[in-house]
Amino acid sequence: MGSIKKNFTSQLELSLFGYIAKAAEEIDQPAYVIGGWVRDLLLERPSKDIDIVTVGSGIELAKAVAKQSKRFTEVSQFKNFGTAMIKFDEYEVEFVGARRESYSRNSRKPVVENGTLQDDQNRRDFTINALSIGLNRDDWGKIYDPFDGLKDLENKTIRTPLAPGQTYSDDPLRMMRAIRFASQLNFKIDTDSYEAIAKNKNRIKIISKERISTELNKILLSDQPSVGLELLYKTGLLEIFFPELVALSGVEEIDGQTHKENFYHTLEVVDNISRETDNLWLRYAALLHDIGKPVTKRFDKNIGWTFHGHEFVGSKMVPKIFKRLKLPLDDKMKYVKKLVALSSRPIVLATEKATDSGVRRLLYDAGNDVEDLMTLCEADVTTKSEKRKKRYLNNFKVVRKKLKEVEEKDHVRNFQPPVDGKEIIKRYNLQPGKEIGKLKNAVKEAILDGQIQNDYDQAIEFLDQQAMEMGLLAGSDRKN
């Protein structure tokens, strides 16, 4: 750890820490940098969030620091929590007074009292987050590590400072955080900690869905989300707040025929897509792309296991899942719902001859999200046969090429029919009604089928033919 300490000391030479040290000395309040910034520095991970703990008032120290330089923003005070925040260049610096905490059974909100540095380290969730370093004249650069956090960093282990059962029972959100850090850092969870999470899993029910989803999002945004998702599954937490995913697990056999294990397939798809994109909502689409399979699973003795319509059923489940998890119900949810609904369409085009009509319809339905849809479908290839995988991906290249060619020729992505309802009403002297919708839809279908081009004159000629067949031209005042 010698080279790491040297790196750490050089980081303390940032003027920011000099200002904090000077202010701490002026108001006679010892100050320490603690938590995630220290951990990430030792792991050589970038971090712009800095936590400062002081034996005294965090708000008063923040005020004293802000006076040191015009490079600091004004102090944002959070008096109810005894914390304050200021910005220094690209860094956000939060100040809090050292404290001790005690918890009641039915809440994760602690009773807080003033405390020492040791008290504050005791309340930290994990040993690697309890590391702190002195910013004072007599302990400048000294690492305080009462729980062997440095050793846990070396061993890539998530461990609690105090008894894990008590730690997770006091604040059950820490169970999600343990799994999130394991996923983000590619660490393992200490055996006692893991067992305590499984034992205390039902305590997660007192945590708000917003807090749970925040941690789930961070797991999904890690480099290999399957690490965290599998830990959530094996500890039993996933069953409590996301039972639809757990329902994907397992393999059923009838007459010697089995189906794919869809839970671990889904984890593979999420990992695959995470190598291609940081888009959280595209990763959610990967997580939910097969969510309708347990509901639609059927066995036919002639053809085996089927999941007919699972994409449609799955897309209908998305709003309910988002609502329960307190995820946004805006365009992000609609985006995920659409991609789940369309998730098999490019696969059909890749396994069959990609007709212009099929490609047009895909372009129309997917709109500007067609590239993301193709990325999702390519991530869905999890076969262990390299030969088969290569064939599938090559087929998708053909589909991508066809999409480009058809779009350049027909311009059907997000298109609107070249004749609108008002013009139809005027042309055929109609009153608003179902005939208008039928005619508009007929034009759209004709364009998508390739009967006519996406062109005004061709659309008008086609409409006249349709109107005549529907008996709408008799007595009309049609303009030629």
From TrEMBL:
**Alphabetical list of InterPro entries matching this protein:** HD/PDEase_dom, HD_domain, HDIG_dom, NT_sf, PolA_pol_head_dom, PolyA_RNA-bd, tRNA_CCA-adding_enzyme
Query: Which positions fall inside the tRNA nucleotidyltransferase/poly(A) polymerase RNA and SrmB- binding domain?
Result: 186-245
Q: Name one GO biological process term.
A: tRNA processing
Q: Which UniProt keywords apply?
A: ATP-binding, Magnesium, Metal-binding, Nucleotide-binding, Nucleotidyltransferase, RNA repair, RNA-binding, Transferase, tRNA processing
What positions does the domain Poly A polymerase head occupy? 31-159
Sorted alphabetically, which CDD domains does this protein's record hold?
HDc, NT_ClassII-CCAase
Cofactor dependence: Mg(2+)
Give the matching Gene3D superfamilies. Answer: 1.10.246.80, Beta Polymerase, domain 2 (3.30.460.10), cca-adding enzyme, domain 2 (1.10.3090.10)
- A single GO molecular function term of this UniProt record: ATP binding
Domain (HD): give its ranges: 263-360
Q: Which PANTHER family match?
A: MULTIFUNCTIONAL CCA PROTEIN (PTHR47545)
Name the protein family: Belongs to the tRNA nucleotidyltransferase/poly(A) polymerase family.
Name of the protein described by the UniProt record:
HD domain-containing protein
